[in-house]
């Protein structure tokens, strides 16, 4: 699964990486947690648009928006069929903007899981494969939410966790966002583990277990102190 991630780079870097015309200035995020706002890109009228979604997808048919607390991730293997995700998989796919994420490893005989920070070796921006939805409130306004697709782990992640988020190579962004592709084979075949040799992982402190901790110390390697 993916339960925490980072986005620490500038609006200018985001605009360039995702071919966006306008990206508001924002603070670096070192510990993005479920129910918090996340940055994303969608396709509208033949152009990409920057959006902010709440993390935790609320289906349009939901009676209670708290269902989003349980829908922060969607399995790539079944998202096209699951009632909670299938409409978004067909019509509302997005790029969720990140530059790293965390996973927790449970060691033998150890009570507390060890968190790891994972990023691309060049520390560049990347995109999770995401789905988004609109949920209408009683006053007629809309809550816009998202989820991150997950898949089998690559060889780097396999010793740490049994799932990993789907990271999309930049050359696949147009296909993933294309609204004409209703979740068919062209879309499904993008949902693969990212190349392990392009990624790196290192242990970090348990600071990230508390979402109130939001500073560069969250991504500092504990190996540097050993």
Q: Please state the overall shape, judged from the principal axes of the Cα atoms.
A: globular
> Given the structure, what is the number of helices?
4
Instruction: Kindly state the number of beta strands.
Output: 13
Helix content: 10-25%
First-residue to last-residue Cα separation: 28 Å
Series of secondary-structure elements, N-terminal to C-terminal:
EHEEEEHEEEEEEEHHE
DSSP strand (E) fraction? Answer: 25-35%
**Radius of gyration over C-alpha positions, nearest whole angstrom:** 17 Å
Short descriptors:
226 residues, mainly beta, five-stranded antiparallel beta sheet, five-stranded mixed beta barrel, 13 strands, globular
Q: Any overview of this molecule?
A:
This protein has 226 residues and is mostly beta strands. It contains 4 helices and 13 strands. It has helices spanning 11-18, 86-91, 173-177, 185-188; strands at 4-7, 29-32, 37-44, 47-55, 73-75, 93-98, 100-105, 114-120, 126-136, 142-151, 164-165, 167-168, 199-203. The strands form 2 sheets. Strands 2-1-7-8-13 form a 5-stranded antiparallel β-sheet, with no helix packed on it. Strand 7 and strand 8 (114-120) form a beta hairpin. It is globular.
Could you give a short description of this structure?
This protein has 226 residues and is mostly beta strands. The chain has helices at residues 11-18, 86-91, 173-177, 185-188; strands at 4-7, 29-32, 37-44, 47-55, 73-75, 93-98, 100-105, 114-120, 126-136, 142-151, 164-165, 167-168, 199-203.
């Amino acid at each position: 699964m993916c339960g925490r991630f980072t986005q620490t780079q500038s609006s200018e870097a985001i605009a360039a990486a995702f071919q966006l015309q306008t990206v508001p200035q924002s603070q670096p995020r070192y510990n993005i947690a479920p129910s918090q706002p996340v940055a994303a890109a969608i396709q509208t009228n033949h152009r990409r648009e920057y959006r902010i979604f709440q993390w935790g997808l609320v289906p349009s048919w939901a009676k209670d928006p708290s269902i989003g607390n349980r829908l922060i991730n969607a399995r790539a293997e079944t998202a096209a069929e699951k009632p909670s995700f299938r409409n978004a998989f067909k019509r509302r796919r997005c790029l969720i903007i990140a530059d790293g994420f965390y996973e927790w490893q449970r060691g033998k005989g150890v009570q507390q899981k060890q968190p790891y920070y994972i990023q691309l070796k060049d520390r560049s921006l990347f995109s999770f494969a995401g789905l988004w939805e609109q949920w209408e409130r009683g006053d007629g306004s809309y809550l816009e939410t998202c989820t991150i697709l997950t898949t089998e782990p690559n060889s780097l992640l396999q010793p740490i966790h049994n799932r990993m988020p789907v990271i999309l190579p930049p050359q696949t962004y147009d296909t993933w966002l294309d609204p004409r592709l209703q979740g068919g084979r062209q879309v499904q075949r993008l949902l693969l583990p990212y190349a392990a040799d392009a990624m790196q992982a290192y242990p970090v402190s348990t600071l990230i277990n508390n979402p109130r901790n939001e500073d560069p110390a969250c991504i500092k390697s504990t190996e540097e102190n050993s």
